[in-house]
Amino acid sequence: MTSRMAMYIDSSKCMACRGCQVACKQWNDLEGWEYSHTVNTGSYENPPSLSPQTWTRIKFIEVPDSGPLGFQWLFLKEGCMHCGDPACVKVCPTRALKKHPLGIVTFERELCNGCGYCTQFCPFGIPKSDIKNLLTGEAKSSKCVFCQDRTTNGLLPACVKTCPAKALDWGPWEEMVSKARARVEELKAKGYTAAQVYGDTQLGGLGRIYVLTNTPEKYGLPANPQFPLLATLWQDIVQPLGGLAIAGTALALGFNWLVARRKIKVEQTGEEG
Amino acid sequence: MLRKGGLIRVFSTQQRLIHWVHTFTFAVLALTGLFLFFQDLRPFVIADAGTASRSLHRMGALLMGVLPLLYLLLDYRNFFASMRRLLTWSKVDLGWLKAAPRYYFLGDEKAMPPQDKFNTGQKLFYLVVALGYLVFGVTGLLMWGGKGSIDPLLFMLCVLLHDLMAIAWVSFFLVHFALSAMHPLMKGALDGMLFGWMPEEYVEHHHAKYYAEIVEKERQ
Q: Is the confidence at residue A254, as pLDDT, over 80?
C-alpha cells in the first residue's frame, strides 16, 4: 500500500505545550543545545526558529482583538511541508533528498555534501544547514522527514503520537484533507469566520494539511507559495545548455581543424584536393 | 623588444608563470564545477567526495583570485602594456570579425587584416576571462559566505549567473586550447607561452601589425 500520506495539523486545538518538539528531538536524537542559548524576545516561543537540531517547533503569533485579553494567540506547528512538487528535490545534486511514494520528502544524511541549495530554494525556507567550517564548506543539511524510519514501517510520526490535544493526525492524504475541511466548517459555525484549510491546493498539495483559524498571512505563511522559477531555469535549461554549448564548440573546432589540415595539404602539393 | 636568432621575445617569465598557474587553477575549478553539470559525474558530488570537491573548488578559487594581484606585483609593466593592447579596439578588429568565419571554417585568409600582438579573437577571450573574474568573484563569494544572510532570491540568481559564466568560460577555453595547442597552423602560439619566444616568421604571418611595429622600433 503506497498511497500518499499527510499530517493533519489542527491549530485550533493546539495548546502550544510543545510536546511535539520534545518527541521530535527524542526520536530523531537531536540536541537541545539551543535552550541554553535562548534569547527572550518578548514571546513565549522557544526556540526562536527552526535549526539543524530543531526540525519542528510551535510558532507563537499574537493577533490583537477586542476580547478580554486584547489579543488572540495563534499557534503554528512549523516544519517541512513535504510539497507534492518539492523544489529541494529538484536542486539537490546528491539525491540525498528524494520523494517517497508515501509523499514524504526523505533525507539521507550520509549522501548530503553540504551544498545547502535546499536551504535556499525551498519556498518556505525550511531546511537548515549545519555549517561546520565556513572556509571548506563542510556542512550537512537537515529538516523534518516525517519520521521516515517510523512512517515507512507503518508507525505514526513521533510528534503525532505524543500530541495530547489530538491536534495532530496522520493518514491517507485525501482523508486528512476531508477531515480538515469538515473541521473548518465546524469552526465557521462556531464563529471563526476566517477559518480555512491550508495545504490542500498549494504546490501540488502539501504533506501538511493545516486547519487555520485565521488567514495564512496572519500565521506568516505565504498565501500562494510558488515553485521557484529559477530552479526550473537552472536545472531544465541552463544545465542542459552547458552540455550543448560544449559539444557545439568542440564540433566547430573539429571542423576548423580539418579545414586547417586540408589547407596545409593543398599548400604542400600545390593543387586543390 | 628582443629579436634574436630568428625568434622574437613575446612573454616574460613572470607572465608565463602566471599563465600556467592560472591554467592549473582553471582545471581544478572547471573539473570540480562540471561535476554538477553531468549526471555521469554525480558520484563526485555525493557525500564526502562532494564535500571534498566543494572544498577544492573554494581553494582553487582563492588561488585564482590572488593571481591578478600577483601578476601586478611581479610584472606590472607587462600587465599594463598587455592591458593597453587588449583594450585597444580599431578597424583592424572589425575586419577580423568580418573575415573570421571564412578564415576559420573555409581556410580563406585573403580578407584577414594584419593583427596586433593579440588578435581580435584573443582580445575577446581575454575580455571574457576578465568578465569571469568579476562574475565568479561576486557570485562565488556571495554563495560562499552569504547563505542564510542574503535574500534567497539573490542566492538563486548567483547560482544561475555562476553557471552561465562557467559555460562561457569552458566554451572559450576549448577554443583557446584547440587554436593554441592543437591547431596545425598555429604552433608558434604554444612556443610563445612555453618558452617566451616565437619564430619570427610566425609573428610576421599571424601578427603582421605587431611585427611591423617591432621592425619600425628597431629602425629608429
A: yes
Question: Which of B37, B45, B104 lies at the smallest CB-CB distance from A239?
Answer: B37
The three-state DSSP-derived secondary structure of A121-176 is: HCCCCCCEEEEEECCCCEEEEECCCCCHHHHCCCCCCHHHHHCCCCCEEEEEHHHH
pLDDT digits (tens, 9 = 90+) for A180-207: 999 999 999 999 999 999 999 999 999 9
Which residues of chain A does B164 touch, with a Cβ-Cβ cutoff of 8 Å?
238
Distances in whole angstroms, Cα of residue B62 to Cα of each of B8, B70, B117, B161, B179: 34, 12, 30, 19, 28
Strand order in the sheet with A208-212: A168-172, A5-10, A208-212, A196-198
Neighbouring residues of A245: CB distance < 8 A, sequence distance ≥ 6: B167, B170, B171
* pTM as predicted: 0.90
Residue A68 C-alpha from the chain's centroid:
38
Q: What percent of chain A has pLDDT over 90?
A: 79
B178 with A257: Cβ contact below 8 A: yes
Q: Which of A234, A259, A260 sits opposite B159 (nearest CB)?
A: A234
**Bridge partner residues of B8 (DSSP):** B3, B198
Return the closest-CA partner of residue A17 out of A151, A181, A166, A202: A166
CA distances to A256, B114, B202 from B205, in Å:
19, 8, 5
Measured between CA atoms, how close is A199 to chain B, in angstroms?
Answer: 22
Single-letter amino acid, residue B105: F
Copy the grid coordinates of residue A9. Answer: 495539523
Chain B residue numbers with beta carbons less than 8 Å from the beta carbon of A96 are 46
Is the Cβ–Cβ distance between A159 and A168 less than 8 Å?
yes
What is the identity of the amino acid at B119?
N
Residue B16 has pLDDT above 90, yes or no: yes
Are residues A246 and B105, on separate chains, in Cβ contact within 8 Å? no
pLDDT tens digits for range B21-39: 999 999 999 999 998 888 8
- 3 state DSSP class of B121: helix
Instruction: Identify the residue among B38, B39, B51, B172 best suited for mutation to test binding to A, counting A beta carbons within 10 A and taking the highest.
Output: B51
Taking the C-alpha atoms of residue B40 and residue B36, their distance in angstroms, rounded to an integer, is 10
Taking the C-alpha atoms of residue B147 and residue B141, their distance in angstroms, rounded to an integer, is: 10
